[in-house]
């Protein structure tokens, strides 16, 4: 991984330099991708990554399958963790995005990131309804209480099923009247979203297969109310252990917090500063040295929105800027990626007949061994996906081309 180097200047002797190769090696081991680092259970994958992107249902299973030693058990084991044991929970988290978290982190996520978003969402809903001439906040509170009671009786239910018990959920109101983006919203859609970010409900088992986005709702598991600052410190410690070193910009982007919150949490956990090519980065306390096994080469086919590809705002150390146009959509969502030893080297897709196809976009250092390892990963993926067809929710240029 190269010798130890220390940054010069004002902080000479205090900040250790962490180069690109060392960061890539750390990524492979900590994210359960490097040889000998794969997990036995989905819970281990979620704990290693802190959060699995859940806005595309297939991403959760594909991200887990890429990191399990026995990928053939991916669907059954992930569904067990999500819907039977409830050791994994699908809920709103950072940046108002749906993730899958280890159950023990739900209280931390709710207090550190959910409360602020929840306040904004409820205020926005009440304001939008008032502008449309819809009933007031007291009416909404009554509908909410009735909806939660119905969900408690049913255990899990779709919005349509809940509306059978509480018909007021079907009522509609005009949003942004007179604007170019005017639309009609249903009370159920907006209210259940608010209840989700408030930590009162979570996504349950989908109506269809593991690729379905038609989820039932379920009451959120009980959790203690934590101090916001303590929760932010806890979440940052978990994330830096998984993804450090990272810059302040990375941390602000991933958490969605204000920079003052990021800096307070860094101080609270005693994060250590290290020198990166792009400036000062941070690692968890006592975690500045190279990780064991980081020099072992590895290949991976990671899905769209995989938490490894989406983990940092600054990604040049593992993703060449020239690869962004074919691998990202216009909103900044990453598509399926091919990795070799800690960097993105191409993309992949599934064709209608089930074949997994891939293309290298950066062949620098990708020799015969790498291509054989990538081909083996493609075959492993096809083996456990089987007859299921997976189309990313956010499609990218290369994925569209390869899947055609």
From TrEMBL:
Keywords: DNA-binding. Pfam families: AlkZ-like. One of its GO terms (molecular function) is DNA binding. It comes from the Bacteria. InterPro entries: AlkZ-like. PANTHER family: LMO0824 PROTEIN (PTHR38479), WINGED HELIX DNA-BINDING DOMAIN-CONTAINING PROTEIN (PTHR38479:SF2). This is Winged helix DNA-binding domain-containing protein. The lineage of its organism: Bacteria, Bacillati, Actinomycetota, Actinomycetes, Kitasatosporales.
């Amino acid at each position: 991984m190269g010798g130890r180097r220390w940054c010069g200047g004002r902080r000479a002797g205090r900040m250790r330099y962490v180069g690109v190769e060392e960061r890539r090696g750390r990524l492979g081991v900590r994210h359960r991708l490097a040889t000998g680092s794969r997990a036995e259970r989905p819970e281990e994958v979620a704990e290693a990554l802190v959060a699995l992107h859940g806005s595309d249902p297939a991403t959760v299973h594909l991200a887990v399958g890429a990191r399990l030693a026995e990928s053939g058990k991916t669907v059954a084991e992930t569904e067990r963790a999500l819907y039977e044991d409830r050791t994994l929970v699908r809920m709103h988290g950072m940046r108002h995005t749906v993730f899958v978290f280890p159950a023990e982190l739900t209280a931390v996520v709710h207090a550190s990131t959910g409360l602020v978003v929840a306040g904004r969402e409820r205020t926005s809903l009440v304001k939008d309804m008032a502008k449309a001439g819809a009933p007031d906040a007291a009416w909404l509170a009554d509908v909410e209480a009735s909806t939660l009671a119905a969900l408690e009786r049913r255990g899990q239910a779709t919005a349509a099923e809940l509306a059978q018990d509480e018909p007021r959920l079907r009522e509609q109101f005009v949003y942004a009247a007179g604007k170019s983006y005017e639309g009609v919203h249903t009370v159920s859609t907006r209210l259940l979203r608010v209840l989700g970010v408030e930590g009162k409900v979570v996504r349950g088992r989908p109506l269809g297969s593991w690729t379905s986005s038609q989820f039932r709702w379920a009451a959120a598991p009980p959790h203690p109310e934590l101090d916001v600052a303590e929760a932010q410190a806890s979440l940052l410690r978990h994330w830096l252990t998984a993804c450090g070193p990272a810059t302040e910009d990375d941390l602000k982007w991933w958490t969605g917090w204000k920079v003052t919150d990021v800096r307070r949490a860094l101080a609270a956990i005693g994060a250590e500063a290290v020198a990166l090519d792009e400036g000062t980065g941070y690692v968890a306390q006592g975690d500045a040295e190279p990780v064991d096994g980081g020099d072992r080469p590895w290949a991976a086919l990671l899905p769209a929105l995989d938490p490894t590809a989406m983990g940092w705002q600054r990604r040049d150390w593992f993703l060449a800027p020239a690869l962004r146009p074919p691998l990202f959509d216009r909103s900044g969502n990453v598509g399926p990626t091919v990795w070799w030893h800690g960097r993105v080297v191409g993309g992949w897709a599934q064709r209608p007949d089930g074949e997994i196809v891939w293309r290298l976009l950066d062949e620098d250092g990708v020799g015969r061994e790498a291509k054989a390892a990538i081909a083996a990963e493609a075959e492993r993926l096809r083996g456990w996906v089987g007859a299921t067809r997976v189309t990313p929710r956010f499609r990218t240029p290369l994925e569209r081309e390869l899947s055609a």
